[in-house]
Specification:
With 200 residues, this protein is an alpha+beta fold. The chain has three domains: 47 residues, Helicase, Ruva Protein, domain 3, CATH 1.10.8; 92 residues, Tetrahydropterin Synthase, Chain A (2-Layer Sandwich); 40 residues, GTP Cyclohydrolase I, Chain A, domain 1, CATH 1.10.286. It contains eight helices and five strands. The strands form two sheets. The protein has a three-stranded antiparallel beta sheet with strand order 1-2-5. The chain has a two-stranded antiparallel sheet with strand order 3-4. Helix 6 crosses helix 7.
């Protein structure tokens, strides 16, 4: 079955992918629109992994104020070009990330950003707790790693569940954005303030 121009147009509108990519995906899927969209998504996520090392020197700062000005967030989200930085989609993503930070109070962007002494302190506390609970030595290591994983899920932005869809992590949403824009995107830094809190 040959792919029609209307099918290509429809798939483009649904996915934002290029004409050639849409045609290839539709040909591969035998004209099945849903299957073609899945093929494009898989390819896009694979490409996102490849783009991970590319430099991101353009981008935006997004400012968000919540609760009648009681919580404020500033976040810097970077991409490769000013062209993408100016798009509504990219700016919307940056704003969503500011909302995420306001709602969930992460401390770091990635697991790699967590200082080693904090990781070791969490490990030691989890081990002490497991020992105090009388857990057997052969399961303590697994308990410690499990609790450390939970700590990262709360403390690191990219490990958190996305506030609008708790089936996906912020890291997965970021990869989808990379696949959509065709550029590497990074969340460089953020700051969150709450009225009356002590400065850190």
């Amino acid at each position: 079955m040959s792919t029609t121009a209307d099918q290509v147009k429809q798939l483009r509108e649904e996915t934002g992918a290029g004409v050639l990519e849409c045609k290839k995906a539709l040909d591969e899927a035998g004209g099945d629109m849903a299957r073609a969209a899945n093929i494009l998504q898989e390819r896009g996520l694979a490409m996102a992994e490849k783009r991970a090392g590319r430099e991101t020197s353009a981008g935006v700062l997004d400012l968000y104020s919540h609760g009648e000005g009681r919580v404020g967030v500033m976040i810097e989200v970077n991409c490769e070009t000013d062209f993408v930085a100016r798009t509504e989609e990219f700016r919307g993503f940056a704003h969503e990330m500011a909302l995420q930070v306001a709602a969930t109070s992460p401390q770091w962007v990635t697991v790699e950003d967590v200082p080693e002494d904090v990781v070791e302190e969490q490990r030691a506390e989890s081990r002490q707790q497991a020992e105090a609970e009388g857990k057997s030595p052969d399961v303590i290591d697994r308990i410690v790693e499990g609790r450390l994983g939970k700590f990262f899920e709360e403390a690191c932005l990219l490990e958190q569940s996305y506030i609008r869809d708790d089936e996906r992590t912020v890291g997965e949403i970021l990869k989808e954005m990379i696949a959509t824009t065709g550029e590497n995107i990074t969340i460089r830094r953020f700051a969150r303030w709450s009225v009356g809190e002590e400065a850190s």
